[in-house]
Write a structure and sequence with these properties.
Protein name: LytTR family transcriptional regulator
Keywords: Coiled coil, Membrane, Transmembrane, Transmembrane helix
Organism: Larkinella rosea
Strand content: 15-25%
GO molecular function: DNA binding; phosphorelay response regulator activity
Number of domains: 2
Number of strands: 10
Pfam families: LytTR
Distance between the termini: 39 Å
Largest sheet: 5 strands, antiparallel
Number of helices: 8
Length: about 300
Protein backbone atom coordinates (compact mmCIF):
# COMPACT_ATOMS: atom_id res chain seq x y z
CA UNK A 1 0.00 0.00 0.00
CA UNK A 2 2.84 2.41 0.86
CA UNK A 3 4.41 1.71 -2.53
CA UNK A 4 1.14 2.65 -4.25
CA UNK A 5 0.87 5.92 -2.31
CA UNK A 6 4.35 6.89 -3.56
CA UNK A 7 3.49 6.37 -7.23
CA UNK A 8 3.52 9.48 -9.49
CA UNK A 9 0.19 11.21 -10.01
CA UNK A 10 -0.70 14.14 -12.29
CA UNK A 11 -0.69 17.49 -10.53
CA UNK A 12 -0.21 20.29 -13.03
CA UNK A 13 -3.57 21.35 -14.43
CA UNK A 14 -4.52 24.42 -16.49
CA UNK A 15 -6.08 27.23 -14.44
CA UNK A 16 -9.28 26.92 -16.47
CA UNK A 17 -9.71 23.28 -15.49
CA UNK A 18 -9.23 24.14 -11.82
CA UNK A 19 -11.96 26.80 -12.08
CA UNK A 20 -14.32 24.30 -13.72
CA UNK A 21 -13.63 21.75 -10.99
CA UNK A 22 -14.36 24.31 -8.27
CA UNK A 23 -17.63 25.26 -9.97
CA UNK A 24 -18.72 21.63 -10.18
CA UNK A 25 -17.91 20.99 -6.52
CA UNK A 26 -19.78 24.11 -5.41
CA UNK A 27 -22.79 23.24 -7.58
CA UNK A 28 -22.85 19.65 -6.29
CA UNK A 29 -22.74 20.66 -2.62
CA UNK A 30 -25.40 23.35 -3.02
CA UNK A 31 -27.82 21.25 -5.08
CA UNK A 32 -27.30 18.15 -2.91
CA UNK A 33 -28.21 20.04 0.24
CA UNK A 34 -31.13 21.78 -1.48
CA UNK A 35 -32.64 18.59 -2.90
CA UNK A 36 -32.09 16.14 -0.03
CA UNK A 37 -31.87 18.63 2.88
CA UNK A 38 -30.03 16.35 5.36
CA UNK A 39 -29.03 17.30 8.93
CA UNK A 40 -32.63 18.45 9.67
CA UNK A 41 -32.49 21.14 7.00
CA UNK A 42 -35.97 20.02 5.94
CA UNK A 43 -37.29 21.20 9.34
CA UNK A 44 -35.50 24.52 9.17
CA UNK A 45 -37.98 27.38 8.84
CA UNK A 46 -36.35 30.60 7.66
CA UNK A 47 -36.90 33.33 5.04
CA UNK A 48 -35.01 32.89 1.74
CA UNK A 49 -34.24 29.31 2.69
CA UNK A 50 -33.28 28.26 -0.84
CA UNK A 51 -30.77 31.09 -1.17
CA UNK A 52 -29.27 30.33 2.25
CA UNK A 53 -28.88 26.62 1.45
CA UNK A 54 -27.25 27.39 -1.90
CA UNK A 55 -24.83 29.54 0.09
CA UNK A 56 -23.19 26.32 1.30
CA UNK A 57 -22.38 25.59 -2.35
CA UNK A 58 -20.95 29.07 -2.80
CA UNK A 59 -18.75 28.60 0.28
CA UNK A 60 -17.56 25.26 -1.11
CA UNK A 61 -16.72 26.90 -4.45
CA UNK A 62 -14.76 29.71 -2.79
CA UNK A 63 -12.72 27.31 -0.63
CA UNK A 64 -11.96 24.96 -3.52
CA UNK A 65 -11.09 27.76 -5.95
CA UNK A 66 -8.96 29.54 -3.36
CA UNK A 67 -6.91 26.45 -2.56
CA UNK A 68 -6.51 25.20 -6.13
CA UNK A 69 -5.71 28.60 -7.64
CA UNK A 70 -3.62 30.29 -4.93
CA UNK A 71 -1.48 27.56 -3.36
CA UNK A 72 0.12 26.33 -6.62
CA UNK A 73 1.07 29.95 -7.33
CA UNK A 74 2.37 30.64 -3.81
CA UNK A 75 4.18 27.28 -3.56
CA UNK A 76 5.11 26.41 -7.15
CA UNK A 77 7.90 24.01 -6.19
CA UNK A 78 5.49 21.92 -4.13
CA UNK A 79 2.87 21.52 -6.82
CA UNK A 80 4.81 19.88 -9.65
CA UNK A 81 4.49 16.50 -11.32
CA UNK A 82 8.01 15.68 -10.21
CA UNK A 83 6.92 15.76 -6.55
CA UNK A 84 3.26 14.77 -6.76
CA UNK A 85 2.16 11.27 -5.77
CA UNK A 86 -1.02 9.28 -5.19
CA UNK A 87 -0.68 9.85 -1.44
CA UNK A 88 -0.30 13.61 -1.86
CA UNK A 89 -3.35 13.75 -4.10
CA UNK A 90 -5.46 11.90 -1.51
CA UNK A 91 -4.23 14.24 1.23
CA UNK A 92 -4.83 17.30 -1.00
CA UNK A 93 -8.43 16.37 -1.84
CA UNK A 94 -9.15 15.40 1.77
CA UNK A 95 -7.83 18.79 2.87
CA UNK A 96 -10.29 20.44 0.48
CA UNK A 97 -13.18 18.47 1.98
CA UNK A 98 -12.12 19.21 5.57
CA UNK A 99 -11.73 22.95 4.98
CA UNK A 100 -15.09 23.04 3.19
CA UNK A 101 -16.63 21.47 6.30
CA UNK A 102 -14.99 24.07 8.57
CA UNK A 103 -16.09 26.99 6.38
CA UNK A 104 -19.64 25.70 6.12
CA UNK A 105 -19.74 25.15 9.90
CA UNK A 106 -19.02 28.84 10.51
CA UNK A 107 -21.45 29.82 7.76
CA UNK A 108 -24.17 27.79 9.49
CA UNK A 109 -23.38 29.45 12.83
CA UNK A 110 -23.70 32.84 11.14
CA UNK A 111 -27.05 31.87 9.62
CA UNK A 112 -28.65 30.66 12.84
CA UNK A 113 -27.00 33.35 14.96
CA UNK A 114 -25.62 30.95 17.55
CA UNK A 115 -23.16 28.02 17.81
CA UNK A 116 -24.45 24.89 16.11
CA UNK A 117 -25.26 22.28 18.76
CA UNK A 118 -24.75 19.25 16.58
CA UNK A 119 -21.30 17.75 16.19
CA UNK A 120 -19.39 20.92 17.08
CA UNK A 121 -16.46 22.12 15.00
CA UNK A 122 -14.07 19.32 15.95
CA UNK A 123 -16.74 16.69 15.55
CA UNK A 124 -17.75 18.02 12.14
CA UNK A 125 -14.13 17.97 10.95
CA UNK A 126 -13.63 14.40 12.20
CA UNK A 127 -16.89 13.14 10.73
CA UNK A 128 -16.20 14.86 7.40
CA UNK A 129 -12.68 13.42 7.27
CA UNK A 130 -13.85 9.89 8.07
CA UNK A 131 -16.66 10.07 5.53
CA UNK A 132 -14.53 11.66 2.82
CA UNK A 133 -11.26 9.75 3.09
CA UNK A 134 -12.58 6.45 1.72
CA UNK A 135 -14.36 7.68 -1.43
CA UNK A 136 -11.55 10.17 -2.06
CA UNK A 137 -8.85 7.54 -1.67
CA UNK A 138 -10.78 5.06 -3.79
CA UNK A 139 -11.43 7.52 -6.61
CA UNK A 140 -7.80 8.66 -6.72
CA UNK A 141 -6.50 5.07 -6.84
CA UNK A 142 -9.00 4.07 -9.54
CA UNK A 143 -8.05 7.12 -11.60
CA UNK A 144 -4.37 6.27 -11.12
CA UNK A 145 -4.90 2.72 -12.41
CA UNK A 146 -6.94 3.91 -15.41
CA UNK A 147 -4.37 6.53 -16.41
CA UNK A 148 -1.46 4.14 -15.88
CA UNK A 149 -3.03 1.51 -18.15
CA UNK A 150 -3.95 4.11 -20.76
CA UNK A 151 -0.53 5.70 -21.11
CA UNK A 152 1.36 2.43 -20.79
CA UNK A 153 -0.70 0.93 -23.62
CA UNK A 154 -0.38 4.01 -25.83
CA UNK A 155 3.37 4.17 -25.23
CA UNK A 156 3.76 0.56 -26.42
CA UNK A 157 2.05 1.48 -29.69
CA UNK A 158 4.66 4.12 -30.59
CA UNK A 159 7.08 2.46 -33.06
CA UNK A 160 10.49 3.48 -31.75
CA UNK A 161 13.59 1.39 -32.33
CA UNK A 162 16.22 1.02 -29.67
CA UNK A 163 19.08 3.45 -30.25
CA UNK A 164 17.39 5.00 -33.28
CA UNK A 165 20.31 7.28 -34.10
CA UNK A 166 22.52 4.23 -34.58
CA UNK A 167 20.00 2.54 -36.90
CA UNK A 168 19.28 5.60 -39.04
CA UNK A 169 20.19 5.35 -42.74
CA UNK A 170 20.70 8.27 -45.07
CA UNK A 171 21.89 10.49 -42.23
CA UNK A 172 22.04 14.21 -43.11
CA UNK A 173 25.39 15.95 -43.14
CA UNK A 174 26.41 17.27 -39.72
CA UNK A 175 25.02 20.74 -39.17
CA UNK A 176 25.92 23.11 -36.37
CA UNK A 177 23.53 25.26 -34.38
CA UNK A 178 24.48 28.41 -32.50
CA UNK A 179 22.24 29.77 -29.75
CA UNK A 180 22.91 32.96 -27.84
CA UNK A 181 22.15 34.20 -24.34
CA UNK A 182 20.07 37.28 -23.56
CA UNK A 183 23.15 39.48 -23.38
CA UNK A 184 23.84 38.60 -27.06
CA UNK A 185 27.46 37.90 -26.11
CA UNK A 186 27.50 34.42 -24.60
CA UNK A 187 26.73 31.71 -27.13
CA UNK A 188 26.91 27.95 -27.57
CA UNK A 189 27.58 26.04 -30.78
CA UNK A 190 27.01 22.32 -31.19
CA UNK A 191 26.12 19.77 -33.87
CA UNK A 192 22.34 19.65 -34.25
CA UNK A 193 22.16 15.88 -34.01
CA UNK A 194 24.23 15.93 -30.79
CA UNK A 195 21.59 17.86 -28.86
CA UNK A 196 19.71 15.79 -26.29
CA UNK A 197 17.46 18.34 -24.61
CA UNK A 198 17.24 21.82 -23.11
CA UNK A 199 15.80 22.38 -19.66
CA UNK A 200 14.45 25.58 -18.16
CA UNK A 201 16.16 26.56 -14.89
CA UNK A 202 14.53 29.74 -13.59
CA UNK A 203 16.11 32.59 -15.60
CA UNK A 204 18.58 30.19 -17.20
CA UNK A 205 18.41 27.24 -19.55
CA UNK A 206 20.54 24.12 -19.32
CA UNK A 207 21.59 22.75 -22.71
CA UNK A 208 22.45 19.03 -22.65
CA UNK A 209 24.28 17.66 -25.69
CA UNK A 210 26.74 14.91 -26.59
CA UNK A 211 30.46 15.45 -26.63
CA UNK A 212 32.60 12.39 -27.36
CA UNK A 213 29.36 10.40 -26.96
CA UNK A 214 28.90 11.57 -23.37
CA UNK A 215 26.27 14.10 -22.22
CA UNK A 216 27.62 17.48 -21.15
CA UNK A 217 25.73 20.48 -19.78
CA UNK A 218 26.06 24.15 -20.60
CA UNK A 219 24.19 26.97 -18.84
CA UNK A 220 22.90 30.00 -20.73
CA UNK A 221 21.08 32.98 -19.26
CA UNK A 222 18.01 32.81 -21.46
CA UNK A 223 14.39 31.76 -21.28
CA UNK A 224 13.42 28.46 -22.87
CA UNK A 225 10.97 30.23 -25.21
CA UNK A 226 13.73 32.48 -26.49
CA UNK A 227 15.98 29.52 -27.27
CA UNK A 228 13.06 27.72 -28.87
CA UNK A 229 12.55 30.62 -31.27
CA UNK A 230 16.25 30.50 -32.19
CA UNK A 231 16.00 26.77 -32.88
CA UNK A 232 12.89 27.32 -34.99
CA UNK A 233 14.83 29.92 -36.99
CA UNK A 234 17.56 27.35 -37.62
CA UNK A 235 14.93 24.88 -38.81
CA UNK A 236 13.39 27.35 -41.22
CA UNK A 237 16.72 28.42 -42.67
CA UNK A 238 18.32 25.00 -43.10
CA UNK A 239 16.81 21.86 -44.55
CA UNK A 240 19.42 19.66 -42.90
CA UNK A 241 17.94 20.02 -39.44
CA UNK A 242 14.49 18.97 -40.65
CA UNK A 243 15.63 15.37 -40.17
CA UNK A 244 16.45 16.18 -36.53
CA UNK A 245 13.19 17.59 -35.11
CA UNK A 246 13.82 19.60 -31.97
CA UNK A 247 10.48 20.33 -30.32
CA UNK A 248 8.91 21.45 -27.07
CA UNK A 249 7.58 18.52 -25.03
CA UNK A 250 6.91 20.30 -21.73
CA UNK A 251 6.87 23.85 -20.43
CA UNK A 252 10.34 23.15 -18.98
CA UNK A 253 11.85 21.00 -21.74
CA UNK A 254 12.81 21.02 -25.42
CA UNK A 255 13.86 17.62 -26.76
CA UNK A 256 15.57 16.25 -29.84
CA UNK A 257 13.22 13.47 -30.98
CA UNK A 258 16.07 11.81 -32.88
CA UNK A 259 17.57 10.92 -29.52
CA UNK A 260 14.45 9.33 -28.05
CA UNK A 261 15.13 5.62 -27.59
CA UNK A 262 11.97 4.57 -25.79
CA UNK A 263 8.63 5.96 -24.68
CA UNK A 264 6.94 4.72 -21.52
CA UNK A 265 3.79 5.80 -19.76
CA UNK A 266 2.66 6.30 -16.18
CA UNK A 267 -0.33 8.00 -14.55
CA UNK A 268 1.13 11.43 -15.33
CA UNK A 269 1.54 10.74 -19.06
CA UNK A 270 4.42 9.85 -21.33
CA UNK A 271 8.12 9.67 -20.45
CA UNK A 272 10.83 10.03 -23.09
CA UNK A 273 13.98 7.97 -22.50
CA UNK A 274 17.32 9.16 -23.89
CA UNK A 275 20.97 8.05 -23.74
CA UNK A 276 20.49 4.40 -22.82
CA UNK A 277 17.62 5.28 -20.48
CA UNK A 278 19.83 7.41 -18.23
CA UNK A 279 17.81 10.53 -19.04
CA UNK A 280 14.03 10.77 -18.77
CA UNK A 281 11.89 13.73 -19.81
CA UNK A 282 8.18 14.25 -19.11
CA UNK A 283 5.65 15.07 -21.82
CA UNK A 284 3.02 17.64 -20.88
CA UNK A 285 -0.59 16.74 -21.71
CA UNK A 286 -0.94 19.59 -24.23
CA UNK A 287 1.89 18.12 -26.33
CA UNK A 288 0.71 14.49 -26.24
CA UNK A 289 -1.00 14.26 -29.63
CA UNK A 290 1.42 16.37 -31.65
CA UNK A 291 4.53 14.80 -30.17
CA UNK A 292 3.28 11.24 -30.65
CA UNK A 293 2.38 12.05 -34.25
CA UNK A 294 5.87 13.44 -34.82
CA UNK A 295 7.49 10.36 -33.31
CA UNK A 296 5.41 8.01 -35.47
CA UNK A 297 6.28 10.00 -38.60
CA UNK A 298 9.94 10.05 -37.66
CA UNK A 299 10.32 6.35 -36.98
Amino acid sequence: MWHLLNQPYPCEEPARRRWVKAIWIGAFVGLFLLIFQPFDLNRWQTPYKTVKILGFGLISFVVTAGLSQLLPVLLPTRFTNERWTVGREILWVTTHITLIAVANYFYLNWLIGRPFRGFGLFGMVVVTFLIGIFPVGGSVIVNYIIRLKKYSQLAREIPIHEHPAQNRIDEPEPHSITITAENEKDSLTFVANDLLYIESSDNYSTVVYLKNNEPVKALLRSSLSRLESQLDSNKNNRNAIARNPIVRCHRSYIVNLEKVEKVTGNAQGYKLHLHNGQLQLPVARKYNDTLVAQLKALF
